[in-house]
Each structure stands twice: as structure tokens, then as C-alpha cells.
Specification:
Radius of gyration of chain B: 23 Å
Largest sheet of chain A: none
Number of helices of chain B: 7
Distance between the termini of chain A: 49 Å
Helix content of chain B: 55-70%
Largest sheet of chain B: none
CATH architecture of one domain in chain B: Up-down Bundle
Number of strands of chain A: 0
Strand content of chain A: under 5%
CATH topology of chain A: Helix Hairpins
CATH superfamily of one domain in chain B: NADH-ubiquinone/plastoquinone oxidoreductase chain 6, subunit NuoJ
CATH class of chain A: Mainly Alpha
Oligomer: heterodimer
Number of strands of chain B: 0
CATH topology of one domain in chain B: Four Helix Bundle (Hemerythrin (Met), subunit A)
Order of helices and strands of chain B: HHHHHHH
Radius of gyration of chain A: 17 Å
Structural class of chain B: mainly alpha
Structural class of chain A: mainly alpha
Chain lengths: 99, 198
Amino acid sequence: MDLTWYLVLSALLFSIGAGGVLVRRSPLVILLCLEIMLNSANLALIAFSRSLGDADGQIFALIVMVVAACEVVVGLGLIVAMYRRRLPLDVDESRGLRG
Amino acid sequence: MEQVAFFAGAIGALGGAVAVIALRNPFYSVLALVVHLFSLAGLFLILHAEFVAAAQVVVYAGGVMVLYVFVAAYVGGFGEPIWDAIPGQRLLAPLLAGALFIELSIAVIGTALTSLDSAGPTIPLGFGSPEAIGELMLERFLIPFEAASMLLLIAAVGAVVLAARRPPLPSSNNGQGPSLEDEPARLAPATASERDPV
């Protein structure tokens, strides 16, 4: 398969994830959509790594996975803290820091 | 054969991603994301990234998704309407996502990369194997590797601090936890008393 197929698939997945972030309001689902976006970037990195015959891109993808895991842990911690404080789990309601 | 595998993986990944957005129950969204991740791991295998594919299944689908399932079960399925609230969002959000896709596709296809229309060079045996990845990680990318471990440690500590159980406050209404009305009043002492042990 040509590299173009993988890159277009990656772009499509990225825009689906971005659309999900824009549309959904539950912070849990927004985190899931962020995962989709990060994974689409991983797919592009690995496709380029295959296309160049150089394994460096795979290391990049692994580091992206580590960063995604950190983001998930902190995000889920925030969600649990919001739930404990009986705050509404809706990103439109959490506007205390709005300027 | 490769085409069949690619399209199977692509359809699985796209279907999983769409299902994450379209399903109303967060629990089902998490399960749809597991499908998405498994399909992506299949695509990584076609691209000869065996170690990354294994890490994707073990770390993501095995570890991170279990965390999501726990939180989704803890928080509960709050029946959120998918389309809502902000006027114009129903129209604007898919429009922006479509514009983003078109822009990315133009950027990808419009580049003058000669490798775009080829499946890539022949690669050496063991490309993407744990051996090759480990050698790269411990030699050329040692500092990013250590930085990543540090980042994971910081994130773990941060999550414990964020989600730690607060001691009950005297102002809470008969043990049921505070209501939203007295939220600013109790936020200040909680954060102040919590900052001490850290």
C-alpha cells in the first residue's frame, strides 16, 4: 500500500477526533477523542518510518504513547476529583476560569 | 493480501472512531475505542512496527482502557445528549472537522514527497522488532527515554494528588457531601490543607 493511503486515513481519524472534541460535552468522551487524535498522529509517524526505512519514527510513536498515558492519568484524576466535589461533568459548565 | 488487511484495519479504525463520538453511553464509547486501538495495532503490524503494535495492545488496550472503564463505571453513564446547547454547534462542528480533513489531505497530497506513491524501501530483517527498538531507545534516544520515565512518575504522583479523598469538612450538609451552593467556601480550605503534605 502506498504511503498516501495511510496519511489520508490518519488525517481522517484526526479530523474525526477533532470533531468529537468540538461536539461532545462529557470530559470523559473528550479524553477519548484526544486519544483518537494522538493515535492518528502515531499512525502517520509509523507510516513515515516505514516509508523511510528508518525506525526512529517508531520511537517517536512510543514516546507519544507515554505522553498520552500521562495525559489520560491526569485527565481521569481531574474527572474523579470533579465527581467527588459534585461538580457537573460537563465542560460547558466548568467555566470558572473564563475571562 | 496486504490491501485486504489494510482496508479491514482502516474500516475498523474509522468505525471505532465514529462510534466513540456517536454512542451516548460513555461506557460503550470506551469499548468502541478498544476496537479502534486493536485495528490500529493491525495497521502497525502491516507497517512492520511489531513492537509498537504489541505495546499498543498491551499498554493501551490492556492498561489505559481498563483505567477508562473503571472511571466510566465509577462516574456512571450520564445520559448526555450528543447534540446540544451552543447555537450553531450542530452545523459548525462537523463543518470545521471536514475543513480540517480537507486541509490535511491537501497538505499531505500536495507535498512533493516522492515516497508518497511507493510502499517504501525494502527494509532489513528485524525492522521494528523489540531488539531494534530497544537498541535505539537505550543508545540514540536514551535521554528522551529517561525523560519519558520521569514524566510518567510525575503524572502518577499528580493523579494521586488530584484524586485523593478529601477529609469531610464541617460545612458539609449532613454528611451527603457539599452541594454546589457552598462550593467557593469550601474550595479554599481544601486546597490549602491539601498542599501541605506535598
